[in-house]
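Hello,

I think I submitted the phosphoenolpyruvate job twice by accident. Can you confirm which output corresponds to this input? Input:
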Amino acid sequence: MIVVMSAAGTEAQRNAVIARLVDLGLRGQEIVGESRTVIAVLGNVYPELRDELGTMDGVDEVLRVSKPYKLASREVQQDDTVVRLPHGVAVGGGRPVVMAGPCSIESESQLWEAARGVRDGGAHILRGGAFKPRSSPYSFQGMGVPGLQLLRRAGDEFGMPVISELLSVRDVAAVAQYSDVLQIGARNMQNFVLLEEAGKTGKPVMLKRGLAGTIEEWLLAAEYILNQGNPNVILCERGIRTFETATRNTLDLNAIALVRRLSHLPVISDPSHGTGKWYLVKPMSMASLAVGADGLMIEVHPSPDHALSDGAQSLTPANFAALMRAGAALGAALGRPFADMPQRVA
Ligand code: PEP
Ligand code: MN
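Support: Only one job matched these inputs. Its output is below.
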């Protein structure tokens, strides 16, 4: 349920609505939009509440939200969410951003070469995994905290915000200390305790879609983060499991276009994990931008054939630069050019 306040509604009237909700054992969250201010009613609502709230001063109308997710829904917030990061980088709101870097942080020299390559190629955000969710316990598990420290230094040196995966509640403090965005990986999309802990940090969170997550389950997972009072949520489509085995996953372009309609949250496309094949990354990046993705996440390794994880889907810096040139041309044609480059000083 949402309470739409009249354009002339006062702060006192909004506070009275929120206080009334608290008295009823519910919670109200104010969402200030360009054209209207609404109060989202959170908790177990009942039909009579609509009339009870509708008679309060300053209330224009009370509407039922038809979707099970509330804070993530466009019914509740019409304007796009824009997640603001250091170096003046904004995710959402029109101009696509590109996150790029290695699947795993492997060493200082590997990360520096990758960071230089993606920065020169036009990336806005540097990615790199320090805690890796590997299918086999015998595969490289990531460098852990020393890897995060390298990522932070590389981001500062090359002038880019950084993103890294938060794999477990065990690591919340460390990842929140060193990374500008906390990535929740596909395997953790429904780890609700982890989502709540990530939300509580107040840091931007990028929530990847689960391997078998429906769009509704994905948006409900986002709701767990938003419900902690953290509005800085970015979604990421990274491919789902289907009967098809010719590609690693099936990048769901429907989901990108549909989620842009259902939700105000920015949606990033990850064609690296979505395809598993480096030569499909550029075409599926172009397709993602064409259907309205708010950005891309691209795995880049200075020497993909030596990568400790996901080499087959990683681009060389030269191939990444070619992708960015194609994306710039497409962006110009679509009227949605890439965001400006990050500013050097935060
Ligand atoms: C990654 O980004 O390297 C990763 C592990 O992604 P996903 O959770 O989508 O598999
Ligand atoms: Mn990877």
